[in-house]
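Lab meeting prep.
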Amino acid sequence: MTFLLLVVTVVFVPASPRTQDGERRHNTRKTEWTYEGANGPEHWRDLDPEYAACKVGKQQSPIDIRNAKRAEVPALRCEYKRGPLKIVNNGHTAVRVNYAPGNGNVLIVGDKRYELTQVHFHCPSEEFIHGKPSDMVIHLMHQSSDGKVAAVAVLLKAGRANAIVRQLWEHMPNTPGTEVIAGAEVDPTGLLPRDTSYYSYMGSLTAPPCTEGVTWFVLKTPVDVSEQEINAFAKLYPHNVRPLQPLNGRVVMESQ
């Protein structure tokens, strides 16, 4: 099978007027940015006043996770469900799966509930573990009713084919702006490992506006994706990652 990868937004229901860029639904600005060149990460702060945190923030993401502190922290419960697949090629920076408010997919951490807002991919991973990145990463973004943002990072490594990733790759439209109703359904549970033990720290969105106050849960167990699936993404986006950011004294917690 030949995989033709173009950047898409996958929408299960009509999108909210609040949108994220990089981490969709949290950025209402339209100022263009990139991962390289004059509009790359070192210049994000200069592109728009609302991107100031990208330079001056003290709790920025991603980070290299080292010397985590083991602690009794709440387990993660991802209560996701299958939903119809509606695909839009947005011609931007990553494969992105958007969910409108009220979609019913929730992340539960202790007594806190967050609704899934979107899913996107980076190649290689933005997160490092003990100095090393993974082949890719999935960021599952969530938001609580009081506006708090929680991100679950699932590291991907070369191995067996991933049925959900393959399904997304197969249904991508060829033309930017084209919307396709795929006649298929996707359950984001298939993007998660069985073991959801994690590292956790306070950080930010990893793309403009680099908003802080994001609780990150980086899952310790990677998920397999095939070399072909990795190469299909990397051919179009060989390095859609933000450079590592300083820890600045933050403590990274590790579940038991």
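Slide two material, second protein:
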Amino acid sequence: MIDLREKVVMIAGANGGIGGHVAEVLVECGATTALSFHNSSARVEEVRVKAASAGRDCRVAQVDITSIDAVMRWAESVAATFGKIDAVVNCCGSNGPFKLFADQDPSGWHAMLDIELMSSVYLAKAVLEQMVKRKQGRIISLGSDSGKVGNSGSSMSAAARGGLNAFSKSLARELARYGVTVNTVCPGPTETANLAGLRSQGDTGEKIVNAMLRSIPLGRAGDPRDIGWLIAFLASDHASYITGQTLSISGGLTMC
């Protein structure tokens, strides 16, 4: 078991299909957690109840992760409550339909960039000063393999994820001297509502999913808890020599 009993971890997007599982795994590892949601609090409340039953402190807040002012206030509140922030994990993502670029509505592009790129920028800005002062910390973002190799039907999302990879690597170089690590976890196809939604989008969606699954050497889509365990490791003291990485967790679909 990865031991996070002395760690305070902020998890943005903990109400998501992956984020909820990430939060549960970190709670199981003993972390004190601060969870954010945007619209629905049902999933984070499930995690909070599980944390309470295990004797773990878990605080829940509604946060507009696309607003730097809201993110800064959230981080200040967490630091005031617990006295420190050891790690921040961004699991936020968009739930937009998969569409070929020619069929996309440009009016939604900026919102996707705000959620899938700028939210991680804002979270990093909100925590890095106190992490630098303490000379320790973990900044972890949930990206996507699409940011490495592209993906049919999600060109703008892939662009945001590619920018996230570049931002994280650059920030990792800046913060390494202070003992603060910055990494991105890049899932491949994962069994979430998003994957189910893509399957339901007619022949094009079904063909995209089937083609992806056929290409995975391990022969299946990922389990969201697999991602949680990788993030728990990166948040732990055992990962102190890993920084600036874009770690694929895709059953071998992407080997780069």
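Talking points for slide two:
Strands lie at 8-12, 32-37, 58-62, 87-90, 137-142, 180-187, 246-249.
The mean pLDDT is 93.
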